[in-house]
Design brief:
Helix content: 55-70%
Distance between the termini: 101 Å
Number of helices: 3
Radius of gyration: 30 Å
Shape: elongated
Number of strands: 0
Structural class: mainly alpha
Length: about 70
């Protein structure tokens, strides 16, 4: 009965060490991405696609709808 208890405690220690190492890896990845500028401006790139670009090829090919004069 004492043997099972010892294995349970060693499993908890192993899981604790593995989870701390994983947390440190995530922290290192986050700090690396902050250092590389990944989070500098998260809003502007998402809003950029909402603005019309007059120099794009799509703007050149699409013409304005032609308004017809009302017939009497």
């Amino acid at each position: 009965m004492g043997l099972g208890r010892g294995l349970g405690m060693s499993a908890i220690i192993i899981l604790l060490v593995v989870s701390l190492m994983l947390a440190l890896c995530f922290l290192a990845a986050f700090l690396w991405s902050v250092h590389k500028g990944q989070f500098d401006d998260p809003v502007t790139p998402a809003l950029r696609m909402l603005h019309d670009d007059e120099t794009s090829s799509h703007a050149k090919t699409v013409s304005e709808p032609i308004e017809k004069e009302p017939s009497l």
